[in-house]
Amino acid sequence: MKKKLIMVIVILCTTAWITRSQTYDIVLKGGHMIDPKNNIDEVMDLAIADGKIAQVAKTIDETGAAKVIDATNMYVTPGVIDLHVHVYYGTKADQDYMNGPNAVPPDGFSFRAGVTTVVDAGSSGWRTFPDFKRQTIDMAKTRVLAFLNIVGEGMRGGPFEQNTKDMDARKTAEFASAHPDIIVGIKLAHYNGHEWAPTDSAVHAGILADLPVMIDFGGSIPPLSIEELFMEHLRPGDIFTHCYASLQSRESLVDDNGKVKPFVFDARKKGIIFDVGHGGGSFRWSQAIPAMEQGFLPDAISSDLHIGSMNSGMKDMSNLMSKFLNLGMSLQDVILRSTWNPAKIIHHPELGNLSVGSEADIAVFSLRKGNFGFLDTGNEKMEGDQKLETELTIRAGKIVWDLNGIGATAIRQ
Ligand SMILES: [Zn+2]
What single DSSP character describes residue 6? Predict the structure, then answer.
């Protein structure tokens, strides 16, 4: 009996010792956490160990932690997932977004805007993906996922993207299925013709590989019917990008009287996903303002990052997210649409959240108050009074961006 009691005491003491001596690599203290997946919208501490989220609680004992970061008056969110970027950068002057100068290197533009995962939107096809993977994806600290273009060459520009002979659904699907860790969908973009075959090829590849399809609906003049696209060609879960574009060559969601077309709500009910894909020519206040007023919010806020968009109205994800704040979207909704929603859209529910055990991809934002101006792709300005600023970005437990040194040690005098 006595022996047993001693054993119990020994076990209890050991357990207590283990609990007390548990050390964290980083503890983020006192930040306002917004984690839509877990319905968290309050001040919480968060601890990181071995690149993973180790604990989330009202108060975490930071004793023994290698680093303690005070996030008081800041917002702590999952690392942002940018659903639409072009990061197959290179030096081939005539190759557009495919190993060309219109794309950008991911790490140069992601972390500074709170982004930890980017999804390349069809810059490569099955012929060019191996080069993209070797040159960019494998080299980047940012997590780079990809939609594979239905065009084998990818976004090589000009006639390459019009070549229906290079749109092989079976090959594209087989290739996508062989890279399930990186390829999350199929893309069709920039097709100018009036046939539906390219759309249907992309969807066919999506069916064969069991992946969603993202459609950048071409440049056909007169434009094709988007009602027909939504209701007859796309499946639930397929993605319509550039949703607030106003172009001659593509039908818009909002009509000339400022009304969201009725079939657009039906398409949403069917399960069509609406993605911002701001870009250099695809986001107009004349679409976004009435759509927001009539309750038609985008499912995903994404940048369509490339040289043209980052140097004009889009700038970066935190600026784009701020636009939606100033359009009247709540901060919780903005974070949902740039973290957990995109994770679900690409069927990667392990991303875009702050659950214990998840990879520690985290963004910390300040919400600045002041006088700010936001541009659309027609260079029209909307004034606003709030702006998100990326204070800190953590990727797989490592600090990769620290604007004001909240994660750094103070200077020694
Ligand atoms: Zn794009």
Answer: H
Residue among 129, 301, 274, 291 nearest 214 (CA): 274
CA 363 to ligand 1 center in whole angstroms: 24
Do 22 and 15 meet the contact criterion of CB atoms below 8 Å apart? no
10 Å CB burial of residue 171 (0-12, 13-18, 19+) is middle
What tens digit of pLDDT does each residue of 269-322 get? Answer: 999 999 999 999 999 999 999 999 999 999 999 999 999 999 999 999 999 999
Residues 6+ apart with CB under 8 A from 322: 372, 374, 384, 386, 387, 388
Distance in angstroms (rounded) separating the CA atoms of residues 316 and 311: 9
314 Cα: distance to centroid of ligand 1 (angstroms): 13
Q: How many angstroms is it from 281 CA to the middle of ligand 1?
A: 10
Tell how far the Cα of 261 is from the centroid of ligand 1, in angstroms.
Answer: 24
CA angle 382, 118, 67 (to 5 degrees): 95
Ligand 1 centroid vs 84 CA: distance in angstroms? 6
Give the whole-number percent of the chain exceeding pLDDT 70: 95
Q: Give yes or no for a contact between 344 and 99, defined as CB atoms under 8 angstroms apart.
A: no
Global pTM?
Answer: 0.94
- Cα dihedral sign, 158-163-166-170: positive
Contact criterion met (CB below 8 Å) for 215 and 202: yes
Mention every residue, 6+ apart, whose C-beta is less than 8 A from residue 40.
33, 34, 56, 354
Average pLDDT, the chain: 94
Rounded distance from Cα 157 to ligand 1 centre (Å): 12
Q: What spacing in Å lies between the alpha carbon of 278 and ligand 1's midpoint? A: 9
CB 391 within 8 A of CB 403: yes
Residues 6 or more apart whose CB falls under 8 angstroms from that of 350 comprise 343, 358, 359
pLDDT at 166 over 50: yes
